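Saturday, quiet lab. Running sequence design on the structure tokens for the scaffold JK sent over.
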């Protein structure tokens, strides 16, 4: 066991002196907090986010399901994992992941396990994304209607090692895809 075996992020709860939603959006809000920190006060603006789930779906041939869709802020059709918001009150994380896989890829999975969780952009958002590994793929009982960016989603089954190579070469830059693919590849090599 190395000296860093217990290396981990540490929760901290400085006193929030004031908090205000300065922009209420359709999906998330922008909040301004006044925080007592050390001997002073700091003001921080951030995206107040519901959180999300993502799915690394792997088939029997060790291929990972990738989806491609348009993302307006980056002006790209980037490759991603099936993912979505935690926008159903009280829904368990794994159930949200199952819902997103069915909604975005018309698939269900037999086996589910937590893979990794990440803070998406901790300097600007409180979003946490929980990534699940799903195996034992089968078609969903119903096909979901899609609109907006999801209307022309492209699906591709890519060998896991090739997806990892594309991430490392900088050809696919979606952070959640990168983390999920690399974590899944590492887990598969350690099994």
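Result came back. Writing it out in full:
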């Amino acid at each position: 066991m190395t000296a860093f075996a217990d290396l981990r992020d540490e929760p901290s709860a400085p006193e929030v002196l004031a908090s205000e939603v300065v922009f209420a959006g359709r999906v998330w809000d922008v909040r301004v907090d006044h925080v007592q920190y050390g001997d002073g006060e700091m003001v921080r603006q951030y995206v107040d986010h519901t959180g999300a789930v993502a799915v690394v779906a792997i088939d029997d041939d060790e291929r990972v399901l990738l989806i491609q869709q348009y993302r307006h802020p980056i002006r790209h059709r980037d490759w991603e994992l099936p993912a979505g918001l935690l926008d159903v009150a009280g829904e368990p994380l794994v159930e949200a992941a199952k819902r997103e896989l069915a909604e975005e890829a018309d698939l269900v999975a037999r086996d589910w396990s937590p893979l990794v969780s990440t803070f998406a952009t901790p300097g600007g958002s409180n979003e946490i994304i929980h990534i699940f590994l799903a195996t034992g793929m089968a078609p969903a009982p119903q096909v979901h209607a899609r609109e907006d960016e999801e209307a022309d989603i492209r699906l591709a089954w890519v060998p896991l090692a090739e997806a990892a190579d594309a991430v490392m070469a900088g050809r696919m830059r979606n952070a959640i895809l990168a983390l999920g693919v690399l974590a899944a590849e590492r887990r598969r090599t350690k099994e």
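Notes for JK: The two ends are 19 Å apart (CA to CA). Residues 26 and 49 are 11 Å apart (CA to CA). Ask whether to fix the surface positions before the next round.
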